[in-house]
Write a structure and sequence with these properties.
By secondary structure, this protein is of the alpha+beta class. The chain has 4 helices and 15 strands. Helix content is 19%, strand content 42%. Helix 3 packs across helix 4. The protein is elongated. The N and C termini lie far apart (60 Å).
Length: 270
Amino acid sequence: AGAPEAYYTLYGWAPAAGSGIGFDALPGPTTEWRVEGDTTTLTEATPVTLVWDNGQGLMFKRTFAVDDRYMFTLHQSVENKGVEPVELLPYGLISRFGTPPTSGFFILFEGPLGVFNGTLEEVSYKDLREKGVITHKTTGGWIGITDKYWLSALIPDQQQPVTARFVFQRAGGIDQFQVDYVGAEQTIPAGGSIDSETRLFSGAKVVTLIDEYGSRYNITRFDLAIDWGWFYFLTRPMFYALNYFYVLLGNFGRAILLLTLLVKAIFFPL
């Protein structure tokens, strides 16, 4: 935050309405966490756990893991050592400052997007600047910001309802675009604890990789993170055919020729 063209993700907990808990009792950007254990390298097999005691009866813990293709897994827990129950809501956000340059191709979307209740929504930077805030309630799906080759996407628990938003505002004279979500209110009984697990993908939009993650983590329509256009039913299988021939022949030129011959052969009777 505050850096030129800042682009970052933030996770945490928000107080429930009327709970009487202030944001100073919850972890924020300036919170000094303690590292638990002696892990020095962050990987999928060697997660890093951070712990913070707010001094008011709440113990917060976050465990981060990331694989070699930039799918992050974040496990958060809160332990209530007090004598009264506490109500909190988990949230996640991606904030981007400045309007990034886009290719401007009508067949290639770049900007905020997400899948809500199984339906893809794409919002251009221009439209979001005009509308200010767009809100969706969904169970399952994801929300993020895409560039031509890269994607940052928040992936909440696919079984829990969340309220997701696209947001535009001016901050210090600079355009700020944000995508975020807030989960359902959770009550931590005295002496009890709650848990929340979410994921963040921040990497290259490799088709096979996106499909693999969608299947592995049951992410609703994660394949739509790649813009297949209006003719999804044609472009997607043709891509897979082209890619198969490329792997087989080791040359895209030959793969294109073979795919062309195959299409010609299919339509030859007509």
